[in-house]
Amino acid sequence: MKQRLNHILKRIVTAFAVAMFFSCNSSFEDIRKIDEPQRFPVGVAENFRLIYTDSARIKATLTSSLSKDFSNQEFPYQEFPEGLKVDFFDKDKNKSTVTADYGIIYQATDMTDLRGNVILHTHDGKKLETSQLYWDQKNKWVFTKERFIYTNPEDGTIMNGEGIEFSQDFDEGKGQVRAYKVDGVKDIEVSEEDSLENIEPSGENEG
Length: 207
Prior knowledge:
The protein is an alpha+beta fold. It has two domains: 1-36; 43-205, Sandwich (lipopolysaccharide transport protein A fold), CATH 2.60.450.10. The protein is built from one helix and twelve strands.
């Protein structure tokens, strides 16, 4: 009888210890959440539009359905959780466009980080597709280290690779595309009725 009583007491003590452990663990999680800095925007804007100018000339425009201003943070930034569109204009007012599912501008560095289904269309018909693209506003430079697909109708090719960079102005002499790792180049087979969105690769030439 005494042995059975001791066994019951041990089970009670064990159950109590387990309950205390989970209770303390839950409290610890609550305290940790309290200690974490809460990030709330100082401003939220719908149908947002931002114009970048240089010497009274429009260089780019950024539009988004939703913008959140986090300039109250130690490292201020502006977030576009529902995606955005950026139109670039060269000196001849030719327009190139990039779209993405998500974007963030770091105000201290003038660096824009575009993520998710990033697609760039240049004014002369070139197309770049990647998962992430950076826009350096100060140096007027666009680059990514991620995998990409680059369509160039001028030489009739589709390039696959990893890491690419070029000037945002796409000016002659500055607009040369520099790819760091190229897996292969495919020839483009396209009829007169086809658009860039419906280009089908045909024949592969590894390079």
